[in-house]
Amino acid sequence: MPGRSLPSTTTTLLSSASPRPTSSPPQTTAAAAAAAGLCGAGMALRRLLQGSVLPRIIGRDLAPAVAPFSTESGETIRATLFPGDGIGPEIAESVKQVFNVAGVPIEWEEHYVGTEVDPRTESFLTWESLESVRRNKVGLKGPMATPIGKGHRSLNLTLRKELGLYANVRPCNSLPGYKTRYDDVNLVTIRENTEGEYSGLEHQVVRGVVESLKIITRQASLRVAEYAFHYAKANGRERVSAIHKANIMRKTDGLFLKCCREVSEKYPEIQYEEVIIDNCCMTLVKNPGLFDVLVMPNLYGDIISDLCAGLIGGLGLTPSCNIGEGGICLAEAVHGSAPDIAGKNLANPTALMLSAVMLLRHMQFNDKADRIHNAILQTIAEGKYRTADLGGKASTSEFTNAVCDHI
Questions:
Q1: Largest CA distance in the chain
Q2: Domain 31-60+181-188+208-312: which topology?
Q3: How confident is the model at residue 148 (pLDDT cuts 50, 70, 90)?
Q4: φ, ψ for residue 329, nearest 5 deg
Q5: CATH of domain 67-163+318-407
Q6: CA-based nearest residue to 270, from 229, 314, 329
Q7: Residues 216-244: pLDDT tens digits?
Q8: Which residues pair with 48 in a beta bridge?
């Protein structure tokens, strides 16, 4: 489903609108708001260029880093653990128990969300916790709930920006023995994680008029496209689909597509197609087997990845990891913190366990990853120890013990 040819674009909006000539007639309220918005956009972009977003993007190595871990040294590897909020500490304990049984040589550095905003991160995440991830290069994150209120950044946004987590990777595979509407889902969503509509640049122009800026850069688009094709080749995938809305957003999504096309030329063995997001959503719910690897800008990836999770049974069964600069890999559970069942031994730890499996594969502990993965699938397929969200009555500890027994 190739997209139609788009105007060649190599840059995004990097200059403000020209000032309105003094000889122009007075503008209406709407026109004045629009003009003010354009000036505001230019000022915001100048701040962006001078600030902390683009410097993290420009000039970085585009090739995905190889994990600097050895499976033969026998040394214990230090990894960062964010147990998270709500059910997070319980399911994190499940992962630690499974890793112990499987003999994974990991020592966890645990960090919790702070009680006050750290001025260095502008969020409740401490600078020390971010330094831990930078130092260890690998980490696992349970669900986090950003406290309500002003004056601080989202916890997940802080992690992505501060650690340069540019690609969110979510494999969505039908689980043997667990019946859903589809039984042939086998796809991967790769989401650009640092810019787009989530650049955090929005403001009120005048009362009743709010403006949000969508930032797409060549550097970030090339980087995530390179990762998507590299991932497809390394994992025996045959096709990469670039998801877009360039028929409407010609400049921003047009630039994203141009970068994807440029990278695709280096991978002639991988099929490349472009799919408008509307058609992508329709096709996913009709026949998800038509897709293989999907790469897309931030907002589309946020929506499509959750849609794909629904195809296989929900976020409680969906693993996720974030790939960052310098070889960082932060695996995570993407479901909520479920405070209503926290501390009741009812949570399903599958998503965090499967995310931990992705972390092990990144670290090249493939044998241990396979053992844990197969044990999880076998436990779910047998059906005896499914948690309530999967239609069973097992507790968190009962499910975890069953996985350990299969290991």
A1: 81
A2: Isopropylmalate Dehydrogenase (3.40.718)
A3: low
A4: -135, 115
A5: 3.40.718.10
A6: 229
A7: 999 999 999 999 999 999 999 999 999 99
A8: none
